[in-house]
Amino acid sequence: xxxxxCTVNEQTVVSEVDDRTTLGDWLxxxxxxxxxxxxxxxxxxxxxTVWVDEEPVRACxxxxxxxxxxxxxxxxGFEDDRTMAVLRESFSEAHGLQCGYCTPxxxxxxHDMLTxxxxxxxxxxxxxxxxxxxxxxxxxxxxxxxxxxxDRLAASKG
Length: 158
Description:
Blueprint: E1 2-8, E2 11-17, H1 23-30, E3 49-52, E4 55-58, E5 71-73, H2 82-93, H3 103-116, H4 122-128, H5 140-157
Parallel strand pairs: 1-5
Antiparallel strand pairs: 1-2, 3-4, 3-5
Helix pairs in contact: 2-3, 2-5
């Protein structure tokens, strides 16, 4: 067992974790943050995407012990985030979701893209989304939602 202390969604957490426990399992099973979905559990599908120190990571292949001293942010940690609110609205309006399983990971990836300015055109958006798989939408709605969010955020700034 390893003792870790980290910040999860702005709350300090101290926990004993088995050395083999993944971040995804720890978030879901121990902290009851079930918005982080586990899909492939091989780091391929992106459903488990969370932020660690403001960088997207795959929670299914990151060990919980590795986040000792880090800031972790799951989908639940974006409740009061303006960019995320615009993204959620845009995903709904542009039909960027169907079953919803990939949605938390898609939203966190899209937020990162918007924050870093990596969504200038459809080709760039599709490239940035390459690590997030969706079996339902065909991606057109997701891409349209990100474009809609990008444009709304830009219009509100200027």
